[in-house]
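Re: export button greyed out
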Amino acid sequence: MPAHTEHQPIRIALLGCGVVGTQVARILLHERRSLARRVGAELTLVGIAVRDTTVPRDPAIPTDLLTADATQLVENADIVIEVMGGIDPAQSLIEHALASGASVVTANKALLAQQGPALYERASHENVDLAYEAAVAGAIPIIRPIRESLAGDNITRVLGIVNGTTNYVLDQMTRHGLTLDTAVADAQRLGYAEADPTADVEGHDAAAKAAILASLAFHTRVHLDDVACEGITKVTAEDVAWATRSGHVIKLLAICERTTHGVSARVHPALVPTTHPLASVSDAFNAVFVEAENAGPLMFYGQGAGGAPTASAVMGDVVTAARNRVLGARGAGESVAADLPISAPGDALTRYQIRLSVLDQQGVLASIAKEFAARDVSIEAVTQDLRHDKDGYAVLVIATHTSREADLADTVSALTSLDVVDEVMSVLRIEGS
Amino acid sequence: MPAHTEHQPIRIALLGCGVVGTQVARILLHERRSLARRVGAELTLVGIAVRDTTVPRDPAIPTDLLTADATQLVENADIVIEVMGGIDPAQSLIEHALASGASVVTANKALLAQQGPALYERASHENVDLAYEAAVAGAIPIIRPIRESLAGDNITRVLGIVNGTTNYVLDQMTRHGLTLDTAVADAQRLGYAEADPTADVEGHDAAAKAAILASLAFHTRVHLDDVACEGITKVTAEDVAWATRSGHVIKLLAICERTTHGVSARVHPALVPTTHPLASVSDAFNAVFVEAENAGPLMFYGQGAGGAPTASAVMGDVVTAARNRVLGARGAGESVAADLPISAPGDALTRYQIRLSVLDQQGVLASIAKEFAARDVSIEAVTQDLRHDKDGYAVLVIATHTSREADLADTVSALTSLDVVDEVMSVLRIEGS
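Workaround output, generated via the alternate export path:
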């Protein structure tokens, strides 16, 4: 990469002018002087690619910067900021930018979860920066700390609350005893959830971030398809109430682990002990809890979405990429050097809390316990819920010790066919204890 | 800086072999292969400088690496790791290393709080890296996020729990109602506090970190002498009990702020609302809460001390410095480009909670309120503590709105000379609300 002289401006192309793009443009235009001081060169916004240049924009956006010709814009830039989202045409524009020798800053989690390793390799080959702090957990610095600060350590586990919408929904259910539907409707009314909340409540958004985090944390290619994903749609008000009574809160977690079987990444609702730092992450906030061999537990907390917070993360990457161009350098690239195998979802180790409606008669617990023992699943505690209102039945809440996911699932499946079991009311994993 | 070829090993000199140095050496020796893969070159520990080579060491340390000749070691290294602490000879060895073209990684907060800006300038002049993630908040990545991730944002405030010993002491007082002396004695017994706990309980350790954080966050030279510092020695069990009753916990905070008067840095015990993310930081953990214009609130949490956690932070810096040498680059240097004035301590804006023993008679509140009004300090709430056991007297707890520190101090001073005031029992600042 050619070194910039102190005074040669760095040309910035912005692809996309939605909520995030507008804020990025505002910062680039309004903070010109302090940015130039920090970089050692002017950052010049040379154009903003939009689909339709006639759509009215925020008054902070000069209309003469708008263009529909993204390709031409990319070819005449030193740094390309991609905040349009989606796979196409974002992917081809990023590839074109890298091939043209531009550094790329992107917030595109969907693209990175599917094409990340190929793009990182391309950037490395072209000797330019590809940075994506904004793609995971919005404003929270998490990509750089994992990639650089923990580069001399070995990460063993990442537990992330990486979707603000579902955290808001679960938090409202916990605080106010709402049902899922009511809490989602509230979130929609307040702008925390979209009209179609599928990507959030089904866990797809969190799964994309899990794939990115797992790849980075374990120096291994983890694809979106490798992430076992379960959303929050089955979480009931009763589950939440039981969580509270057993000293937990329910959080949708992105879990990335390195085990003896390799690397696993999964997304599902989980019971988190109220004493765990993740338990106090409320409203639409995000947090990523990282465990490393030497550092021990670390947590990174902040706003996971929104125009200005996401733009802050984008601009951190832009300044770093720009400094690197001024210094004639590039930052550390991604490494998939460890290239660990992806472990089968059934090999994940976790704990279950199972709520069962059972016949209220002698010997029931013994026949249930037999099913656990037959599959090497050890029971930690059994509690009887006295508030069950179905005559002749009792509710048992069974917490297990850590076991293989597949053995736990088998046990639950066996319980459903027992005569003494009326209904398996809920199965939740317990994490972070 | 000359570029290293893929196979030329990077020579590492380690200065100091105490708790942290031993762990750094262990990681360098035991993780050779994965470190080499991440860096793209071997990291070779060429020697460990110690005062006395005959002192018995951890069995993980090969005795043939030990040397008493630190100068000679420094001259033959690409990266120098300084974990000996103290000003002398650390300062001259670091200066010598920089002048010899070596990158330096240090955990020396005392040195940086006093000589940081001169050393950063020297490193920049020599075009080598000077990294110090381990100097503030141990394992927690905080230096790099502030310097790089937030480089495109404007930080307005940093609130840090950056001393684990005092956090442990205050947490024990809060949880178990201990006196300060008992809690300190407990901390000493458990190894959380040193035999002479002065540097911790008087706030000196936190003040050094405040100077480093403020310099970095505000691109300004902030010296240790610029930090107003008050330790926890005056915090009583009664203060802690009152904090709990008013919905707060007492934390020793390092506070760095950018105001209209410039930059301020101060360390003192403060009442933090229990709903604030810092309130749940318990035991000897550290956390740094950062507010930035676009990112909003962020928090970084983890272990602030200890051999392995501190070594993790050191090694993150070592890997980054080594990658930079492989790539023929250097990381972003410190910038004091903003060069803001240091504001007078009296100009700091804060809130006070004042506990007073007063005559239990009519008109007392009016004469007290007059003193506040005369100094433009607005009262937010007055509570009477009914548990006062001194006949004829009442305890008033007064919380103020945000005011100038100097006006608040003047008000307290005026109260002490009022006839109706028996005693000013405690004055605590309220932060984070």
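Chain B has three domains: 10-136+307-327, 143-303, 348-430. The button fix ships in the next patch.
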